[in-house]
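Quick start: read one record
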Amino acid sequence: MPDRPGGQPPFSALRGPVPKALSAALRALRRLVDGAALLLLGYMALAVLVQIVGRYVFNYSIAWSEETATFAQIWLALLGAGIAMRHNQHVGVDFLILKAPLQVQRVFNLAAFALGAWFLGVVVVGSVSMVGIGLIVKSPALRMPMAIPYSALPVGFAYFLLEFALSSLPRILRPGHDPLEETGI
């Protein structure tokens, strides 16, 4: 099954057991992320519905439902950024780059990748300390460690970094080709 619309899974152009294992691991990770995003969305809808029914039918505010729906939304947004990157759905202005010669395209794509990977790496590393702080801080309603919602930062941005690398490398290695039609690395 292709991992990109109109293309082959990454690593499909390479031969041997390692690329096959990498491709299988990537497919499994993507299924896990897709399933988690679907569950988070469903839970969010259910938690908000419980809050609405509690507030307007029973005249009672259920604090935990609002809190957990917020945490689910945070996780969903950060995992969703990686999913959007996988499908090349992030906004990018590359009109001038596409008009440049292929070598210039390669340089600009490499520079964009380097800056983006550096930024995402800094966010992943920096957010790990927030998870440590979250082990001490408790949430207001459930009194659970804030490390659980804070973990969405390193996990979500690490996944985003992986998808960013997988979508950027074909543009660096083969500039001028549509990334949606690439056969993968």
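DSSP finds six helices and no strands in the chain.
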